[in-house]
Amino acid sequence: MPEAQDRTPPKKKIRVIVVDDETHVRTLIKSVVSGMNCDVVGEAGNGRDAVSLFDKQKPHIMLLDINMPLKSGKQALADIKQKYPSACIIMLTSLTDRETIEDCIELGASGFIRKDLSIDEMRGVIKKTWKAYRETLITDQ
Amino acid sequence: MIAKEKYDLAKLLEEIEEDEEEQTRDLTQEKDIPQDTITELMLASLWKKKNNIT
Description:
The structure holds two protein chains of two kinds. Chain A is of the alpha/beta class.
């Protein structure tokens, strides 16, 4: 008699792109999301590559640094949101002044993570942001 | 004739110093916003957009 098989469909993984100009930060963030139900499907080291990688991969979430060469994270955010208004983009930065935060909100960021958080705290913010993003999702027309 | 006004320079300086201190305090608070506050702002923005459209 064949063994009973688990017919529960596998839980779909959340596809994530990590963007930061510092390799060690990308490594840290990849370890943060790999401990969640996420697949890192790409990474980039500047805003310009971030935009083209988003076009190519269309991830569920992009974790995007602000201070980067070639194109800033804010500009990359603006470019991506113009083309994909419902994109889930979580900013990743050490800049936690009100002006930066309000600019990112204005440009359509879904979340914002301070780089000085612990791994568990970062996971908490990503989960909270993803949940709120899905609950408030308005699909692109 | 030159008009003369009397100013209490010590008091003026004191007021300027107080203003500077106040501005410094405000800037410090604005430059290091805690993660919980940031998350609240971001989530409130998501809900606001949703409610404005629907």
